[in-house]
Amino acid sequence: MFIDYVFDVCRSLARHGFDRIVLVNGHGWNDPLLRAVTHRVCKEAPALCAPVTYWRMVDDVARGLRESRCPGHGS
After folding, report:
1. Four-residue CA torsion sign, 50, 56, 60, 64
2. How crowded is residue 14: how many other Cβ atoms within 10 Å of its Cβ?
3. How far apart are CA 45 and CA 60, in angstroms?
4. For the chain, what is the mean pLDDT?
5. What is residue 22's predicted lDDT score, i.e. its pLDDT?
6. What is the DSSP string of 12-56?
7. Which residues neighbour 21 within 8 Å (Cβ) at sequence distance 6 or greater?
8. Would you list the domain boundaries of the chain?
9. Residue range 6-39, pLDDT digits in tens
10. Residues of the chain with pLDDT > 70: what percent?
11. What spatial distance separates the first Cα and last Cα of the chain, rounded to whole Å?
12. pTM for this predicted structure
């Protein structure tokens, strides 16, 4: 259901002229689902699509700022 919903939104964006779509992941468990969506969008819609996970993009910086040894919510 999640994959179909996100794919439908991406397909609609592509039909309205967006040819590059970035899906920003905000929850770890969505990684494989968003990869499935982007694969489907690239195959079936007239657009390029890629997932990004924001905490992986800033991991090096966050390690220098974090005071706790354990990552996670509220750390």
Report:
1. positive
2. 19
3. 35
4. 88
5. 97
6. HHHHTT--EEEEEE-SGGGHHHHHHHHHHHHHHSSSEEEEEEHHH
7. 10, 13, 14, 41, 47, 48, 49, 50
8. 1-46
9. 999 999 999 999 999 999 998 878 999 999 999 9
10. 89
11. 32
12. 0.77
Answer for the pair 26, 54: CB distance below 8 angstroms, yes or no. Answer: yes
Distance (Å, whole) CA 45 – CA 66: 41
Q: How many CB atoms lie within 10 A of CB 50?
A: 13
Q: Which residue has the tokens 């974090």?
A: 66
d(CA 1, CA 12): 17
